[in-house]
Amino acid sequence: MSPLPATLPAIVRTRVRAAVRRPARLTPEEAETRTLVLRLCSLLLQYPDAELAAARPVLTATVEALPPSPAAEHLAAFTAWFTGQEPDALERQYVEMFDLRRKSSLYLTYYLHGDTRRRGMALLTLAQRYRATGWNTDGGELPDHLPVVLEYAALAGPRAGEAPLRQHRRGLELIHRALTDADSPYRHVLAALLTLLPPPTEADLRAVAELAAQGPPNEDVGLDPYGAGEFAPPGTFVPPEQAPPTLIPPLTPPEGPR
């Protein structure tokens, strides 16, 4: 989005920016498809355990039945790879991409707050947001884990539900960039998600470049300064223990293309 003229009254500039970032009004069919795409992204970004691996035919059929869109194309590219891999290869790829690399960690508040006290408050705020809408995550994962955030977005709708995704737009952009640089098929899932969000502003892109070069804020005592490549020296980051997948009602096979 081009910068707005400085001569415009502040309230006008604010409302124009809000209108650009506000999700467009959707038809019931579009809203249903959007919800399904969010749920598919949530499932495909979870650890590929035996249950998820066994569900690959259903996931693939569901993606194939989506109406044509850039998001559907990205998800189809991912499921084509996903269905052709051995389960142990899927597990290795997932751990390598999301547990061993800070630049593609799925914990969104890390990119905004790093290892600082503010991250704890951000996690608490997210948990309170979920409880306020009556959603219980069962404590299986941190509230900022991307599959959890995606499931909340699918349940709560484009405005309130997708607000955490919009808030962490820059972190999502960095994850996508890191996965693309690593030539990981998971880049297609992030690309599908990004098609649902407002395009990044020039300020967003500058912030992502700075984040990629310098890393998030840091308050930990005893850690060396972040390097330009991996945010921290090798061995500094100990990934959290893998939690069980988010509890999501199973998808039912589609009857055919819509």
From TrEMBL:
GO biological process: chaperone-mediated protein complex assembly; nitrate assimilation
Region (Disordered): 216-258
InterPro entries: DMSO/NO3_reduct_chaperone, NO3_reductase_chaperone_NarJ, TorD-like_sf
Pfam families recorded: Nitrate_red_del (PF02613)
Biased composition (Pro residues): 241-258
Keywords attached to this entry: Nitrate assimilation
An example Gene Ontology molecular-function term: metallochaperone activity
Protein name: Nitrate reductase molybdenum cofactor assembly chaperone
Organism whose genome encodes this protein: Streptomyces sporangiiformans
